[in-house]
Design brief:
The chain has 13 helices and twelve strands. With about 350 residues, the protein is α/β, with parallel strands linked by helices. α2 packs across α3 and α4 packs parallel to α11. The chain is globular and about 55 Å long. The structure holds nicotinamide-adenine-dinucleotide.
Length: about 350
């Protein structure tokens, strides 16, 4: 396979293939760019069908981290790692320990944390053999999941959308459809409910739906119907690729602002949303709250209040982005990429 010319390769600085035969570890670390600072991005454990699929994912995700960290104003570059394994494996802890030695070997050029299949408790296991791990359970009060910072960022993003589109700070009566009620979607529901929004929710997990219906007065909707709701904001908080040719023709929401990664099936779908008059908040901008809240520990020692305040700074970032894209008549996704590249290129580091 021609790795350097494959479509997801974007002049990545370093790609490390990690193997440990004693535990059956197969992993990849991708460092996209370290101009702004050490690369940082979560560790994903997923049973990829092939090494090529895993490589594509880690290349794409690490580039996204460079852009995310840049727009979030963090002195961090972009990186990501994947472990090719089912996270329900009984020897998961052994894999994490073996993998963390590879992260340690990079001596702080790359920091990692939680992601799909890797929890804050798993991050503590990674930290047993490695000094470059953040978003660990032990760094926070019992029961606190750093995904709450991401959810707060999502709520802040929706506030910015409301200000941009309707010139108000009042969210009461705002209709929001939330797809996915896991670590981020459930907490986003909480914030929106507190602010008086009317919620429409879907998840393939019945229990998750029931909780939000009972506690936040949400209306349950079938997972196949959630994107078709006639609402003000559609908040995808589950899987990627959900904004595609088919769904765009069915989406009635005036805005899309949610926390799932890689929402656009392809770049062209950002343009299609603009043409349809749907205000899209690029995923990597609005879901930067986790990095802004937890990633800051790489270079500082913020209090919980400092972290929340930083996350809420996304309000101005998103308003600025929406206004700039509007005035230049370009898709918000394109505007975000331009802003991120400009921040990275203008730094004097390195
Ligand atoms: P999670 O696994 O805790 O929750 C995802 C939820 O989506 C689950 O409840 C699952 O049952 C549900 N789901 C799966 N398929 C669905 C479908 N077809 N329809 C409706 N619901 C479905 O994950 P999370 O941490 O909440 O992350 C959600 C998304 O946000 C992911 O794309 C993740 O990469 C992204 N993200 C998360 C964070 C974070 O801090 N957790 C940060 C940045 C980005």
């Amino acid at each position: 396979m021609p790795i350097f010319s494959q479509v997801d390769f974007d002049a990545h600085e370093q790609v490390l293939f990690c193997h440990d035969a004693t535990v059956g570890l197969f992993g990849i670390i991708a460092i996209h760019n370290t101009k702004l600072g050490p690369a940082a991005g979560g560790c994903r454990m997923y049973p990829y069908k092939s090494t090529v699929t895993a490589l594509k994912d880690v290349l794409r995700l690490s580039k996204g981290m460079s852009y995310k960290n840049a727009i979030a104003g963090l002195p961090l570059g972009g990186g990501k790692c994947v472990i090719i394994a089912d996270p329900s494996r009984p020897d998961k802890a052994d894999l994490l320990r073996a993998f963390s030695k590879h992260v340690q070997s990079l001596k702080g050029r790359y920091w990692t944390a939680i992601d799909v299949g890797v929890s804050p408790k798993d991050a503590d296991i990674l930290a047993e053999n490695c000094d470059y791990i953040f978003a660990r359970a032990s760094q926070y009060p019992e029961g606190f999941n750093p995904s709450k910072f991401t959810a707060l960022g999502g709520f802040t993003g929706i506030r910015a959308v409301v200000k941009h589109l309707w010139k108000t700070e009042d969210l009461s009566g705002l209709k929001v459809a939330i797809q996915g009620l896991g670590a981020t979607g459930k907490n986003l529901s909480h914030h929106l409910h507190e602010a008086g929004a009317e919620l429409f929710v879907a998840d393939i997990n019945e229990e998750a739906v029931q909780f939000v219906v009972e506690n936040y007065g949400a209306k349950a909707v079938s997972p196949d119907e959630i994107h078709r709701q006639d609402v003000d904001v559609y908040a995808p908080c589950a899987m990627g690729g959900i904004i595609n040719d088919k769904s765009i023709s069915e989406i009635k929401a005036k805005s899309i602002c949610g926390l799932a990664n890689n929402q656009l099936a392809t770049e062209i779908h950002g343009k299609m949303l603009m043409e349809k008059g749907i205000t899209y908040v690029p995923d990597y901008v609005v879901n930067a709250g986790g990095m802004m809240g937890a990633g800051t520990r790489i270079f500082s020692q913020p209090t919980m209040e400092d972290s929340k305040k930083r996350v809420m700074g996304l309000y101005d970032t998103i308003l600025n982005l929406l206004e700039k894209a509007n005035s230049r008549k370009i898709p918000t996704s394109e505007m975000a990429d331009k802003m991120a590249i400009e921040i990275i290129n203008k730094t004097n580091n390195n």
